[in-house]
Structure to design on (485 residues):
């Protein structure tokens, strides 16, 4: 008996089959149309026949495969097929292909194993010990199939694969909204984890909200896991971040903006006044939000915010949640945000080492599911009292530093906080140049982690003193290296 694929995998596979030049061929050769259910099976049969005849995906001709149905408004299946085809077209550019193909391989192996078990049981029941040889042949055949799926790794001559890697690496798939980081590749990436180290109460969650916002704007599916704030509070912050609106009318709307020359070099500061179009305590807030959310169609359906109680879940539990999310909601995230790592469940008798292992597991989860990961973590007491946070100030297990792919630190003196300024430092970038600083302006009252940015320069402290009149506006920033533009 051939069991059907789960609905999420069916939707993704049928899209790959019809629109993906490379992986569609694999699906056409490996998947039996009987794996699909109902209307998906009809499309799969036609698409596989198209592949075998033309050696390419039907692409924009996919509606032609079922034209007799969609061109007949009186057909009972007209609306269903039109909806499926529209969803496939929209999904075609955002499918998490690597993860879906891995799931396909697992599914087909499972189907073969089930069939082998049933056939073996039947032969043993009929022939008893006389069937041992035949049963061994069944299982040897299964093992040979598994060997066919064996992946030996990669060679230097796999140039096609490398060209795809270069293309994806430079595609700007994910961004931070900070030019100095985005242009240098210091961004979330699939199979990697970006972490922000910062003192308590300085805006770690606002940073993660900012990453979620950027993902939504790029039409990525974003899962925001909160181990602290409630879902409503986080969705409220998302409204603020997306629409630059304050919670209430009494908010101070003055902001600091960086003044730069034609080469984007910092030359000074200037005050700016923002006039938001509405506030979240407005009597018309429901209508205002509905208008803006409707204007972007299904884009805003690409975010799910889920709260778990602090120290109630491990990364293994999150795996289970992701599986259920895929099965029930048909939602496969491109970016998962964990707010924040220090609140996962651990064995309190061995908390420090257990937390480090959980962080490694989180990175492993991102690799397995081919998604980008982002989180934040507290610094220790020394880091909290320092004007310049360093990676060595990480609290709990230092293995965080070895595990993370990209590490940012967040620092701000009292004078900078009063002006809405902060300093980010790229303490580690596994695949890019690191050890440079960025100065940013912020306005949390409008939900903005960053409103403007520039590379840190040696004269920054002097410029800050001109504004504050303070000799100790911040400590020496000689650790920041000015990069050539």
């Amino acid at each position: 008996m051939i069991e059907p694929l789960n609905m999420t995998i069916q939707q993704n596979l049928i899209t790959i089959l019809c629109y993906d030049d490379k992986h569609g061929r694999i699906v056409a050769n490996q998947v039996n149309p009987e794996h699909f259910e109902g209307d998906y099976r009809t499309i799969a049969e036609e698409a596989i026949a198209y592949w075998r005849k033309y050696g390419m995906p039907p692409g924009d001709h996919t509606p032609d495969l079922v034209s007799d149905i969609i061109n007949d408004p009186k057909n009972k299946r007209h609306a269903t097929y039109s909806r499926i085809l529209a969803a496939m077209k929209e999904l075609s550019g955002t499918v998490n292909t690597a993860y879906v193909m891995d799931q396909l391989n697992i599914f087909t192996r499972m189907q073969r194993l089930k069939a082998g078990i049933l056939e073996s049981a039947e032969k043993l029941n009929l022939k008893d010990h006389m069937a041992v040889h035949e049963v061994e042949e069944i299982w040897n055949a299964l093992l040979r199939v598994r060997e066919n799926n064996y992946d030996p790794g990669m060679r230097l001559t796999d140039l096609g694969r490398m060209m795809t890697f270069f293309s994806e690496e430079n595609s700007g798939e994910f961004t931070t909204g900070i030019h100095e980081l985005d242009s240098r590749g210091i961004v979330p990436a699939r199979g990697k984890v970006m972490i922000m180290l910062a003192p308590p109460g300085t805006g770690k969650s606002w940073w993660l909200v900012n990453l979620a916002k950027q993902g939504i704007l790029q039409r990525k599916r974003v899962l925001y896991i909160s181990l602290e704030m409630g879902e409503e509070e986080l969705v409220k912050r998302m409204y603020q971040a997306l629409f630059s609106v304050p919670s209430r009318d009494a908010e101070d709307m003055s902001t600091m903006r960086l003044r730069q020359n034609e080469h984007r070099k910092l030359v000074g500061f200037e005050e700016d006044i923002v006039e938001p179009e509405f506030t979240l305590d407005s009597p018309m807030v429901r209508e205002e939000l509905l208008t803006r959310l409707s204007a972007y169609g299904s884009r805003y359906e690409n975010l799910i915010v889920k709260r778990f109680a602090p120290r109630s879940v491990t990364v293994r539990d999150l795996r289970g949640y992701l599986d259920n999310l895929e099965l029930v909601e048909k939602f496969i995230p491109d970016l998962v945000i964990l707010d924040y790592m220090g609140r996962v469940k651990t064995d309190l008798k061995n908390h420090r080492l257990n937390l480090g292992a959980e962080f490694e597991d989180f990175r492993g989860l991102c690799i397995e599911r081919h998604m980008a990961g982002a989180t934040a973590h507290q610094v220790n007491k020394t880091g909290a009292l320092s004007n310049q946070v360093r990676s060595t100030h990480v609290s709990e297990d230092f293995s965080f530093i070895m595990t993370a792919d990209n590490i940012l630190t967040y620092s701000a003196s009292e004078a900078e906080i009063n002006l809405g300024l902060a300093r980010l430092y790229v303490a580690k970038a596994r695949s890019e140049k690191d050890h440079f600083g960025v100065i940013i302006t912020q306005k949390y009252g409008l939900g903005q982690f960053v409103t403007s940015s520039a590379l840190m320069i040696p004269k920054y402290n002097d410029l800050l003193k001109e504004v504050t009149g303070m000799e100790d506006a911040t400590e020496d920033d000689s650790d920041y290296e000015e990069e050539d533009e």
User: Anything to note?
Assistant: Residues 168-468 form a domain with the Rossmann fold fold (CATH 3.40.50.300).
